[in-house]
Amino acid sequence: MNEWVIWLIEGGGYWGILLLMMVENIVPPIPSELIMGAAGIAMAHGRMDFAPVLVAGTVGSTLGNYVLFLAADRLGYERLRPFIDRWGRWLTLDWRQVEQAGKFFRRHGRWVVFVMRFMPMFRTLVSVPAGLAHMKHWPFLIYTAAGAAIWNTLLILAGSWMGRRFAEAETWVGWATVVLAVLTGLWYCWRVIFWKSSADNS
After folding, report:
1. Which of 11, 41, 134, 161 could form a disulfide with 7 if both were Cys (CB 3.0 to 4.6 A apart)?
2. Over the stretch 19-47, which tens digit does the pLDDT of each residue have?
3. Chain segment 70-114, per-residue pLDDT in tens
4. How far does Cα 126 stand from its chain's mean position?
5. 149 Cβ partners below 8 Å, 6+ apart?
6. HSE on the CB side for 202, CA within 13 Å?
7. 149 in a domain, yes or no?
8. What number is the average pLDDT over the span 56-66?
9. What is the pTM of this model?
C-alpha cells in the first residue's frame, strides 16, 4: 500500500501532482499536506525539482478552487438553495450556514480568500461564498494562488526536510495517507449520521 501511494503521487510526475491537487480541492481523496509532503521527499532524493513541484501544486490548487468558485458564481443563491435543501444531510450543510459564510466573506472582504488558504477544510469551502458574492475572478485567482504558493512551499520544504533526515520517511507518508483516508471516511459517516440542521437546533 505504501508503495502504491508514493507511486500515485510521484509516478505521475508534475502533471500528476497538478491533477491530484486540483481534485483534492474539489473532492479531497488525499490531503494536500501528504501530496506536497511526498513531493518534497522525492525532491530530497533527487527525483523532482522544487520549482516545477511548486508550480504544479499551486496551479492544481488554484484550478480546483476555481471550479467551486465558478459553480457558485454561476448558480447564485436562488438556484443553489434548492440543492442545499435537498442534499444538505449528505453535505452536512444547511442554508443558514451558507448564508453565515456569505455574510462573513462580505464583511471581511477578499483577504478571507488568502487567509483561509492556511486553514484545513476552510481553504476549499471559502470558494463557495466567494462565488456566491460574485467576487471578481482575477482577484480571486490571485489571492488563491498567492496563499496556495506560500502553503505549498512550507509543505514541500517540510517533506524535503523529512526526506533528508529519515530513511523511512516515504513509509511514514504512505501509512499516514492510508490512516487519514480511513479517519476522513469515518468522520464523514459520523457527521452524516448525527448531523442536524441549524433550524433543528434553534
Report:
1. 11
2. 989 988 877 666 788 888 888 888 888 88
3. 988 998 877 777 877 787 777 677 778 777 777 777 787 778 888
4. 10
5. 54, 58
6. 6
7. yes
8. 95
9. 0.76
Q: DSSP readout, the chain?
A: -HHHHHIIIIITHHHHHHHHHHHHTTS-SS-HHHHHHHHHHHHHTTSS-HHHHHHHHHHHHHHHHHHHHHHHHHHHHHHHHHHHHHHHHHHT--HHHHHHHHHHHHHHTTHHHHHGGGSTTHHHHTHHHHHHTT--HHHHHHHHHHHHHHHHHHHHHHHHHHHHH-TTHHHHHHHHHHHHHHHHHHHHHHHHHH---HHHH-
Q: Which three cell numbers stand for residue 130?
A: 466567494
What domain range includes position 136? Answer: 2-187
Query: Is 74 a domain residue?
Result: yes
Alpha-carbon 7 to chain mean position: 21
Residues 74, 199: Cα–Cα separation, whole Å: 27
Q: Count CB atoms within 10 A of the CB of residue 48.
A: 22
Residue by residue, DSSP assigns 51-74 as HHHHHHHHHHHHHHHHHHHHHHHH
Is the CB of residue 20 less than 8 Å from the CB of residue 12? Answer: yes
9 in any annotated domain:
yes
- How many Å apart are CA 19 and CA 98, to the nearest integer? 28
Q: What letters, b where the CB count within 10 A reaches 16 and e where it falls short, cover 143-165?
A: bbbebbbebbbebbbebbebbee
- With cell 486553514, the residue in question is 119
